[in-house]
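Lab notebook, page 48
Experiment: co-folding of the full assembly
Goal: obtain a model of how the components sit together before planning crosslinking
Operator: M.T.
Materials (sequences as entered):
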Amino acid sequence: MKNKIIMFWAIVLIVIASIVTIFVKPTKLGLDLVGGSRLVLEAETTKSVPVITQEVMDRLQFAIENRVNKLGVAETVVQQTGEKRLLVEIPNVTDLKEAKAFLGETAQLEFKKEAIGPDGIQTWVETGLTGQDLAKSTLTTDAAGHWVVSLEFKSEGSKKFAELTKELVNKPMAIFFNGDLVSAPNVNEPIYGGKAQISGGDSGFAYEEAERMVNLLNAGALPVPAKIVEENTVGPTLGADSIAKSKVAGIIGLGLVMLFMIAYYRLPGLIADVALIIYSLMLFALFKAIPVTLTLAGIAGFILSIGMAVDANILIFERTKEELRAGRNLFTAINSGFDRAFTSIFDSNMTTIITCVILYMLGTSIVKGFALTLALGVIVSMFSAITITKNFMHLIFGTGELKYPALFGLRKDEIGKGFEATETKRENARFGILD
Amino acid sequence: MNEITSRHLIDIVKYRIVWLCISAILLLPGVIALVYSTIHNENHIPLKVGIDYTGGTILQYGVNKNVTNADMSKTRTDLQNIGIENPSIQILHANAESSKNSDLKSIISIKTKFIGEDKDTVNKITETLSKDYTNPDLISVSSVGPTLGRELFKNSLLALSLAFLGIIAYLSFRFKFDYALAAILGIAHDVLFVVGIFSLLGLLYNVQIDGLFITAILTVVGFSVHDTIVVFDRIRENLRYYSKKMSFGEIVNASVNQTLARSINTSLTTIITLAALYFFGGVTTKDFVLAMLIGIAIGTYSSIFFCSVLVDIWEDHKNNKKAAATAA
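Observation: model returned without errors.
Model output:
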């Protein structure tokens, strides 16, 4: 009995700890609930980079991170998934289309010189001077008040730039951005000192255009182009709607399951309900403590697990009722109910966990969320439905005599033979003693 | 426990042909739909597959009115006029009474082929919708590139096969092989039923399956075994005590009836929570929840009326063979 009381207080402590955790820790909500964008970018090979190596991926990730940070949104995620993909998550973004375009641009700045091909057609050829030689870029205006992009080269770049301008005196030097010709001014004299300006050609730059170019140049060029292969964007309206609805569904589901348990199993049902509430608190606290990012599918897994958590109790109580009908005394009935139902509970939960593990390994992030919450739910439910319920049953039915069979939803005559059946010594040793 | 044969509600063994026929009748419409779809769908896929597997883009707009079928066909024509090929349009009713957010009465879901970075197309679609509805709000965009779609499809099939193998391995380890086989046939029964119903829903209401559908199937697989294990555990236990006094059929009958209440009740609590999710939960997970709901209901049926019958038939078959062997 002493052990049972210690256990009871341990459960009380766990409940208090869970409630504290729920109040103190924030809930991590997925992008489909808070609104935001989840993109998968895939690196593409180019002529100059024919193989995507890990080093290329690291540089790509760094460049994308820089750009994402420029968006000024908190809690963004950029991580590599698979060999040549990057997962980008941007929560709470308002102008999504803009963010997307911003990410995909290679932002390759190139300086090219004129050449005449063998067929006499004018083309532009590479000079070796690119955006990688830049130290920084700023947005300024020229004497006439037009927006221009000012460039400052690194020391190596300054040298290259000086040599190039020396070579191209009285010739045009073309500036390409993302493969498009921005302008091709004539070089009047060699430029030393590593500073230059890009004006927007004849039409000049619009402010937004110049600002965007400056931002992209400062964030750094992508080593290889990256294209969007998957996108999931949810606006804040749909997210809020989903949260509100999930709450309603969760409360209704929990309420109905609790009502059913009381209606069918009476006092043990009520005990299972208390255990179920403790289960919900523990699981929610666990989600916050780990933390698990809750998505809509994850919440569905959580709510589904509420229905599955009482399964163990149903198996146990059915068995207990059966033992009572067969005339066992209360202790034997309760204990053998737990004992004999255990294999079934364990086996069936194992199969659920097997499927969850496989889903977690192979699924997309939405599927992973569901698998994780369901698996955690199943594990926690083993504790709540078995340990907690057993403890409460022992404490409540500690007197050892079932005076009111209705408490178990049984009629008096159903256990008419009750207390007559004598257990064997072995059974008594196994089930009959309250330890 | 002396009278374990009393209090029988259902005679599994006596009417085993009836139960198998009911299973066949339950499965038939789905199987017909599957065969029909395989012949008539493009690519000969038995189900309507969503962008997760084919690649494509879905744009969802929230509008502040209840969208009618007439609105929908007008939108479809308008979209075709601006050069969107075969837009597939669906209306999700956001159930405005229960949600406080009155701006979201209906959700118009437009499926097109994959739109990557090309924001002009999205702008054009938004403009077109602005003509037909007041202030449509672009509430979600999901896009899957065609290559990725194929990859996801492969992964899903792999997940499904691995789950099957994992469960077969676990069951063979815990039970004799013939029980494990019966449980697996039970799973196949349940999966076929759910897939068949979704094939039918695809034909009737253009319901498409996505990554979550496979998840639902796997959850059903886990749960279907759940119920079957409870029955088999009891058969095994009863065999230990009564195998000398009773025939195998009687033991199966007794075991099923003893576990009837718990088989039904465990499923019922799960069905209650799923029903709550279906009727009150988020719009985007409705099909996912429906697949699980159907699957868990059929899983309960199969564990009582299908798997136990199979075990009994198999045992008879073994005995007949033995008898034949001794006679010879």
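Interpretation: Chain B has a mean pLDDT of 85.
Next step: discuss with group before ordering constructs.
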